Target: N-hydroxyarylamine O-acetyltransferase
Amino acid sequence: MTSFLTAYFARIGWQQTTAVDIDTLRALHLQHNSAIPFENIDVVLPREIQLDDQSLVDKLVTARRGGYCFEQNGLFERVLREVGFSVRSLLGRVVLANPPQMPPRTHRLLLVELNGERWIADVGFGGQTLTAPIRLQADLEQTTPHGEYRLINDGDDWVLQFRHHQHWQSMYHFDLITQYQADYVMGNFWSAHWPQSHFRHHLLMCRHLPDGGKLTLTNLHFTHWHDGHAVEQLNLPDAAALYQVMQERFGLGVDDVKHGFSLAELTAVMAGFDTHPQAGK
Model:
């Protein structure tokens, strides 16, 4: 086992054996979602987000931080490759908020090929992210630990949807064209710097739980969800309470010399936000 995998497995609390099979893929997917929170703190601090292998390890593994799709799926792609899976990244166009025009490619996801079948894996879409791989097959309703999903297909275009109450909500469009590191760098830069990017105007966090629940933060609003229902909601009074919840409920590391952040830094960020909860990716 490589030193990278040893460190990553310690980060997510993995104590099982690994094999290049669907059971391992499913288990790794869920355990990653449960251990490494989705978060955009570096965007709002602001700090530049680097996507090279060492930067992802330093931040998400060693410093016990989280990240968003370019980081989460970049790290997970390396994990799967070193375990022995055939995997590559794709890029999608996020349509969750029903934009009036087709947006740019700003979401990184993974295509895994296993025993002649193709699967979509994605550990980086916040509150609605997959917590299990799904078959790349159109019109098949697929159940994950945190909800039902399906793919629809029109030529080269695929759309991932999730069941929201009694209807299907589209999340993102994607195709299977080969992408390069420069494409992820471009999408990452746009997501972090475009003035209208929601990542710049709201602090967002999500951690999925093994029991099917999930924890979300939108600015100062904390929610514990289970079976689609809010079983706990807190309007946190200040940045100090937020700082505590990040560590205690999301398991976020804040003390690393490079990737940590202080209460004072968090307080300064939150002072500039409208702290009423808003929907986020």
